[in-house]
Specification:
heterodimer; A: alpha+beta; Butyryl-CoA Dehydrogenase, subunit A, domain 3; 2 domains; 4-stranded mixed beta sheet; 53% helix; 12% strand; globular; B: alpha+beta; Butyryl-Coa Dehydrogenase, subunit A, domain 1; Butyryl-CoA Dehydrogenase, subunit A, domain 2; 3 domains
């Protein structure tokens, strides 16, 4: 698999090996993280990769975390690493609240105390809850037993996306700055761009393997120019998705998530990954033929995941509209500086 | 697990220290516009020939940037040149006069030219006074370049060139071109052997330039007929018999540059001022992604890393996207639409130039083949 630039190659190899080995056991169920596997990730220091050392985390950075998410997504392993570490853990640390190893996710409540499609809520022990009181954002680490309701739901690939309800009056919140909430949104959006990009790369790889090993009319599919063209277009789109995602990632890391244009960079990444998914999914299934639609085949673990993830933390349409709004605000004279700095 | 190698080099954002250069070019362009020296145009690097503008640009040191000072150049990096050309194209500036010389001839001369050839051409190119064309395609050799039939025959006085070249942009105004011709008969076992390149002055006896008028009525392309054109040994470019290697080794420079996604950028800037443009966000996102990808290829070329496949990726995506921008503009412009002066002309130019985007410099079909080869499919 493609390695995120700047990540130690031994670490990357280890991460990919861990997920490949787990994927090979076939013991995954999308609905709950496999407890033994989660335990082994924790023992390897991977479950809270970016958490501070004082709280028992591994104190690594976002580049390493992006490699970890890519390794999991590229192996087809469903696991709440982004939610537990990069989103929930980071919010607690930013609010100077205690963190431990209990499985966590984040829920952002609306004014009636409801959050929809909360990733992995039904499997979490504690939910880092964000809500707005008057003009202030508050955050609390809330044990799942305190929630009125956690109604299970799922995305296209069966990952829990649950509706949760809690009475905020009963919660004691810590005020946090608006910028931390904005960062949380961008972080969530970028984790999905990273995951989509990895899934697209794997769909491309499977298509190359299929086209070179499957023969029809007496020759491998790869010998047909029509098939080559389908795959070349997949490769081009997934390369653009990866480029846009890595640029946003590098900008976030270099400026500690605080640069003015990060919102634009993340929106570019989400738009490019979202539209790349259209071409890659369509062409990957076309290249694979009917077998690619079968449950027993691996392809859907990547194509359906990309389709699910491109609509989380904002639909493709949402991110396109944000780009259009940014372009309109920049106007004819400001569009190029918006793009090129 | 078997690994896919990265098709496009990793992106790391803008090179350090180029922000001031970007600002300087933007300031210059704004001054030129307010002085009435140019209006932004579509496909400016092919269509907008303005020798006064070219000389003004040369006076800023922005032509022949990578040429060493000993040849009158500026000793700047390829990445700095990338930044300048990106700004010029985003501004729709009239850069056609020097474009081929600056983009193609400069790196080729630096790599393959003799000292005498470098002394003869590089200072003039850098001053914005010598303009070049490219002599690759022929009536029977388009995508299949190895089937060129023009020949060079050794005589006592030098080389006699015969044949014709086609789609030579600017040949009616340029001073010279580099022609790819056969110096030995086709070897069916190795079609790429026996090709050589020559520097040919377009005012030489035996050179006849015939205009090929485009469907819009404009004149950019020509057919160049070569009849017993005598070229001295000193005008052999590179090594006899290695023309194919020379031509293909520099293709990444030609294919990955910002002219492969910014040809219609002046249309996209105007779309930001219109209401409810359905595709605006997607197009802005793609251009931003392509900007980063193209910059990454420029950095790889600076490091002299192979980038053929990456360049093909940029060109396939970029030329489709610049066509999509013309399409988006066209879909919004009907007879019920009130437009600013010049808008319709800009849209029409985009539509007329669009078929060329995915043809020139290697058709997208050929480039998909390059990508497929990079993936190990062929």
């Amino acid at each position: 698999m493609t390695t995120i630039p700047g990540v130690d190659s031994d670490l990357s190899t280890m991460m990919h090996a861990v997920f490949a080995a787990h994927a090979a056991t076939g013991e995954d169920s999308a609905g709950t993280p496999n407890p033994a596997f989660w335990q082994s990730l924790s023992e390897l220091g991977l479950s809270r990769l970016t958490g501070s050392a004082e709280s028992g985390g591994s104190a690594a950075g976002w580049l390493e975390a992006a490699e970890l998410l890519s390794a999991a997504a590229g192996a087809g392993v469903r696991i709440p690493l982004a939610e537990h570490d990069l989103l929930a853990g980071a919010l607690l640390e930013a609010a100077s609240l205690p963190v431990d190893d209990r499985l966590r996710t984040v829920a952002e409540l609306d004014s009636s105390g409801v959050a929809r499609a909360v990733p992995w809520a039904s499997t979490a022990a504690s939910i880092v809850t964000l809500w707005r009181s008057a003009d202030t954002w508050l955050v609390a680490d809330v044990d799942v037993s305190a929630f009125d309701e956690i109604i299970p739901g799922a995305n296209l690939v069966g990952e829990p996306r649950d509706r949760v309800t809690v009475d905020t009056v009963s919660l004691r919140g810590t005020p946090i700055d608006d910028t931390l909430v904005k960062q949380y949104h961008l972080k969530g959006a970028l984790t999905r761009a990273i995951q989509v990009s990895a899934a697209l790369d794997r769909a491309l790889m499977l298509s190359c393997e299929h086209a070179t090993t499957r023969s029809q009319f007496g020759r491998p599919l790869a010998r047909f120019q029509a098939v080559q063209n389908l795959i070349a277009d997949m490769a081009a789109e997934s390369a653009l998705a990866r480029a846009a995602t890595e640029v946003a990632l590098v900008a976030a890391v270099q400026n500690e998530w605080s640069t003015d244009d990060l919102g634009f960079r993340v929106a570019v990444a989400r738009s490019c990954t979202g539209h790349a998914t259209t071409t890659v999914v369509r062409n990957a299934h076309q290249v694979h033929g009917a077998i690619g639609t079968a449950l027993e085949h691996d392809l859907h673990r990547f194509t359906r995941a990309a389709l699910a993830w491109r609509g989380e933390f904002g639909s493709v349409g949402y991110w396109d509209r944000r780009l259009a709004a940014a372009a309109a605000a920049a106007g004819p004279g400001g569009l190029w500086p918006l793009i090129a700095g | 697990m078997s690994g896919l190698t990265r098709l496009v080099p990793a992106t790391t954002g803008d090179a350090v220290g180029t922000a001031d250069l970007r600002r300087a070019v933007r300031r210059f362009l704004a001054e030129q516009r307010s002085a009435g020296n140019y209006r932004p145009s579509v496909d400016c690097w092919l269509s907008a020939w303005d020798e006064d503008f070219t000389r003004a640009l040369a006076a800023q040191g922005w032509i022949g940037m990578t040429v060493p000072a000993e040849y009158g150049g500026h000793d700047r990096s390829f990445v700095e040149r990338f930044v300048v050309t990106e700004e010029l194209l985003a501004g729709g500036a009239p850069v056609a006069a020097h474009w081929i010389a600056d983009r193609q001839i400069v790196p080729s001369l630096l790599k393959y030219g003799t000292t005498e050839q470098k002394q003869r051409y590089l200072p003039g190119i850098t001053r914005g006074e010598i303009f070049f064309g490219i002599g690759m395609s022929e009536p029977d050799a388009g995508s299949d370049l190895a089937s060129v039939r023009s020949t060079a025959t050794r005589t006592d006085a030098g080389w006699l060139i015969n044949g014709s070249k086609v789609w030579t942009s600017g040949a009616h105004r340029a001073h010279a071109f580099i022609a790819l011709v056969r110096t030995s008969p086709v070897d069916p076992a190795n079609r790429h052997a026996g090709l050589s390149q020559f520097l040919i002055h377009l005012d030489s006896p035996g050179v006849h330039v015939r205009p090929i008028i485009s469907m819009s009525g404009s004149h950019h392309f020509n057919e160049v007929f070569l009849t017993d054109v005598l070229v001295p040994d000193t005008q052999v470019f590179g090594t006899i018999g290695e023309g194919w290697e020379q031509v293909t080794s520099e293709l990444a420079f030609e294919r990955s540059g910002p002219e492969r996604f910014l040809s219609t950028f002046p249309l996209l800037t105007q779309l930001t001022a219109m209401d409810d443009v359905p595709d605006l966000g997607r197009l802005v996102g793609r251009i931003a992604g392509l900007h980063q990808m193209s910059a990454a290829v420029a950095s790889a070329l600076e490091r002299r890393e192979p980038a053929d496949v990456a360049a093909a990726v940029v060109k396939v995506l970029g030329t489709s996207t610049e066509g999509d921008i013309a399409e988006a503009a066209s879909l919004l412009s009907g007879d019920e639409t009130a437009c600013e002066a010049g808008w319709r002309e800009l849209v029409n130019a985009g539509l007329d130039q669009r078929p060329g985007f995915t043809l020139r410099g290697g058709t997208n079909e050929v480039l998909r083949g390059v990508v497929a080869r990079g993936l190990g499919l062929r």
